[in-house]
Write a structure and sequence with these properties.
Strand order of the largest sheet: 39-40-43-46-49-52-55-58-61-64
Distance between the termini: 110 Å
CATH class of the largest domain: Mainly Beta
Shape: elongated
CATH superfamily of the largest domain: YVTN repeat-like/Quinoprotein amine dehydrogenase
Structural class: mainly beta
Largest sheet: 10 strands, mixed
Strand content: over 45%
CATH topology of the largest domain: Methylamine Dehydrogenase, Chain H
Radius of gyration: 39 Å
CATH architecture of the largest domain: 7 Propeller
Number of helices: 2
Number of domains: 3
Length: about 650
């Protein structure tokens, strides 16, 4: 910096620049307080220190892109910082002595006030290039943006004024006179109100609709407000004052409601509205004071670099960025994680057909006794062969103790996919993850009623609970069927086993149904295995293995097993529902092994036999034991022994 330029800067306003210069010299001589003991910062900590340009003076954050912009006053540059990696990704040349920076997230535009040459640099955040330079005169210092109106406000210290810039045309539309030494400026977009911190102990209140000063707030003799910020959610304004205090202003009444003691000579202030937290940068003590907006008390003091001059907050990550003037760094401050979380992920529909999207929603809950709504992002992953549409990550949204966000998953091949949702945490919350298994099925060709059934004709098939499926004539399932829902098999072929568990009615009819393996039913019911409809002839249902029915639920609904050829054993055991095996309603069964009807107990209201066994051909033994009421047995041809009791 040339001597001429330093003289010019120190005069804008002279007192402010002089104080910073004096503080810098005093710190070099060891006369001012050293960095605060990190032990004082019980809830907040410096998580990274980033090297930037020479004499970083002001900072702005775009939370929509997780990007921070650092104005380096000695280098005449702006450093662009990636908030995810805490690395400088670009350096942009601007005007002389950049003293203020603000971001318009709606247009991805950054505005930099260049103090030494009286201009504002306009930067395109997409290309990191200067697209315009606006002359404002004097010595511009603080800058603020109203994204709702695309209007920029620049505080001009030596001119005692605020320049109003139209963001669409990059032209000055008004100049508003304020008090002496305006340095900080902030906007409340909810009320279209602008607040200007004037170093001569006043805050000017400006109507954005009329560009006129509507009120002036006296912050007290000797207070010297340097900076100002707004919490639009509470209509509260905070000023950092040279007397070591932060003033709290009620935006509805324009009155000071509290003065909070912080560190030495606070020169910057920033608000995290979602956490109701305020950060004050104390350049005289190399610290940042963290204030609870609900109680107006300092809850932590965090040691940072030499001469912290600027501070800004990313409310989406609850991270504060501090410009350290004398050591050319940025301190990144985050709240120490205090709240555990639980992440639950669910997908709908599930099961889902091949090639059909399922929406997977991750819900993150704060499990602390006094929960705070989680924020940040969730990253999805899958063990399957599918992919997520658009992006595999999403940003949480919610209220109270939980927040959620969705992602869309589609898989081209059948089979199970485990979906994982990883929440990385935020300043308040620890990370967590959750998983869910998604069944992706190949639809059964021609079986339009089998909605929600997964598997395919060339593989195993599952009928989940609540699903209904009818296998139409000609269907061939080469694997097994697991039935937990309601299944009807009509002249279809199942090469493997059919296992039904706690499902609804199971109905199997001919005239040409084949089950190559075993038919096992456990729970649920009733069961109807009829090889031929009434009036048919021959065995229309063939079971290559055993037929076993156990533990049907209590019911007086009659199950029927007839006109069937069972190559193995037929067992009806431990059921609470009646059955007819064989006639007289249809043809008897052919049983290659044993027929056992045992330990069945009917409901009290059921007075007929527990089982009726008629007109069957049994190559092995026929046993009926411990049934209440006793089974009725007649007209059977038995190759082995017959035991009834």
């Amino acid at each position: 910096m040339s001597g001429q330029r330093r003289t010019q800067v120190c005069g804008l306003p002279g007192l402010l620049r002089g104080l910073i210069a004096a503080a810098s010299l005093a710190l070099s001589a060891g006369l001012l307080l050293a960095a605060a003991d990190p032990a004082q910062a019980a809830s907040y900590q410096v998580t990274a220190t980033i090297g930037v340009g020479s004499m970083p003076f002001a900072v702005g954050v775009d939370s929509s892109t997780n990007t921070t912009y650092m104005a380096n006053s000695e280098s005449d540059t702006v450093s662009v910082i990636n908030g995810a990696t805490n690395t400088v990704t670009a350096t942009i040349g601007v005007g002389g002595y950049p003293d203020g920076v603000a971001v318009d997230p709606a247009t991805n535009t950054i505005y930099v006030a260049n103090n030494a040459d009286g201009t504002v640099s306009v930067i395109n955040g997409g290309t990191n290039t200067v697209t315009a330079t606006i002359g404002v005169g004097g010595g511009p210092a603080g800058v603020a943006v109203d994204p709702a109106t695309n209007t920029i406000y620049v505080a001009d210290a030596p001119e005692y004024s605020v320049s109003v810039i139209n963001g669409a045309t990059n032209t000055i539309t008004a100049t508003i006179e304020v008090y002496e030494g305006p340095d900080g400026v902030a906007v409340d977009p909810a009320t279209n109100t602008i607040y200007v911190a004037n170093f001569d102990n006043y805050v000017s209140v400006i109507s954005g609709a009329t560009n006129t000063v509507t009120a002036t707030i006296n912050t007290g003799g000797g207070s010297g407000p340097f900076a100002v910020d707004v919490d639009a959610s509470t209509n509260t304004i905070y000023t950092a004052n040279n007397d070591g205090q932060v003033s709290v202003i009620n935006g509805a009444t324009n009155t000071i409601t509290a003065n909070i003691g912080v560190g030495l000579e606070p020169v910057a202030v920033a608000v995290d509205p979602s956490a109701n937290t305020i950060y004050a940068a104390n350049y005289g003590s190399n610290t940042v004071s963290v204030i609870d907006g609900a109680t107006n008390t300092v809850t932590a003091t965090v040691g940072v670099g030499n001469v912290p001059r600027g501070v800004a907050v990313d409310p989406s990550t609850h991270t504060a960025y501090v410009a350290n003037l004398n050591d050319n760094t940025v301190s990144v401050i985050a709240a120490a994680v205090s709240d555990a979380t639980q992440t639950v992920v669910s997908c709908s529909p599930n099961p889902v057909a091949v090639g059909t999207a399922t929406t997977c929603t991750a819900t993150v809950a704060d499990t602390a006794s006094s929960p705070v709504t989680p924020s940040g992002t969730v990253q999805f992953g899958s063990t399957g062969t599918g992919s997520f549409a658009g992006s595999s990550s999403c940003s949480l949204s919610g209220s109270g103790a939980s927040a959620s966000c969705p992602a869309s998953y589609t898989q081209a091949g059948s089979g199970a996919a485990v979906i994982t949702a990883n929440y990385g945490g935020d300043g308040q919350h620890a990370g967590s993850s959750g998983t869910v298994a998604v069944q992706v099925y190949q639809p059964l060709s021609g079986n339009s009623t089998c909605t929600g059934v997964y598997g395919g004709t060339g593989q195993n098939v599952t009928v989940p609970a609540g699903a209904t499926c009818t296998l139409v004539p000609g269907t061939v399932v080469t694997g097994n069927i697991t039935d937990d829902g309601t299944l009807t098999v009509n002249s279809a072929t199942i090469n493997g086993n059919l296992q039904a568990q706690n499902g609804g009615p199971l109905t199997i009819t001919g005239p040409s149904t084949l089950i190559g393996g075993n038919l096992q039913v456990q729970g649920g019911g009733p069961v109807s295995n009829t090889g031929n409809p009434a009036g048919g002839s021959g065995y229309g249902l063939t079971i290559g293995g055993n037929l076993q029915v156990q533990q049907l639920a209590s019911s007086t609904t009659l199950s029927l097993i007839c006109a069937s050829q069972v190559n193995g054993n037929l067992q009806w055991q431990n059921n609470a529902a009646p059955v007819t095996i064989g006639g007289p309603s249809c043809l008897g069964d052919s049983i290659g092994g044993n027929l056992q009807v045992q330990n069945n107990t009917m409901p009290v209201s059921y007075t007929n036999p527990a089982a009726t066994i008629e007109d069957n051909t049994v190559k092995g033994n026929l046993q009926t034991q411990n049934n209440t009421p006793a089974a009725t047995v007649s007209g059977n041809t038995v190759g082995g022994n017959t035991q009834t009791s």
